[in-house]
Amino acid sequence: MTKLLKDVAIVIPVFNEEELIGECIDEWLKVLNSINLHYEILIIDDGSSDATTSIVERYGDTQNIQTIIKPNEGHGPTIVAGYKRAVGIAEWVFQADSDNEIDPNQFSALWSKRQGKDAVIGWRQDRNQTTVRRLVTFVARVVTKVLFRCHLRDVNIPFRLIRSEILTILLERIPSNAFAPNIAVSGALSLMNYQIEECPVVFNERTVGESSLSNLAALRKGGRALFELIKISRVFP
What we know:
The protein is α/β, with parallel strands linked by helices. Helix content is 39%, strand content 21%. The protein is built from eight helices and seven strands. Strands 3-2-1-4-6-5-7 form a seven-stranded mixed sheet, with helices on both faces. Helix 1 links the parallel strand 1 and strand 2. Helix 3 crosses helix 6, helix 5 (131-148) runs parallel beside helix 7 and helix 5 packs parallel to helix 8 (215-233).
């Protein structure tokens, strides 16, 4: 594989986060500059209808930031779009969400564990979830264990570091419109026996704005994710 220019590409999908996205980007810039990395931040705007787009466009002339504005397709396809752009930029790809529920300052802990590994996956400690979301999380773990022999503690966490050459292989078999690509990636990494390190991270509930995922939506989307994972599991050895 050709040597890539950057150390890491940070993929941040965003939709209607006008209250948080500026703070999120500033925090990532501070963290990445403090550890002296060659990096690129990819802001993938999934067709926001609030002021998010105008805020992220202010960073357009920043050397280490790319802003990609795309039609609204949903969170999963936005992650996949970011991944596909990132693997051609840097040796490592890191995905984070834009809501600051996991502090960017915890990135260094994952980065320090990458040597000899194909992926470093965070897991959220002491996460306070509703009963419905706890059930959905539990089912996701059971399903990935059965379908992919995956024993990761947090299969869908948006705080994960993966080698680009490995992620490229996985993306060839994960649909561009995948609803839950991170769960599929977690399962595929395990099923194909890649070297994975887990790293605990502190999770904090968002302080402004609201989550787009209600309990009812979590159940409905969890069912959709289940059927999708069954299909994806069949294309991996």
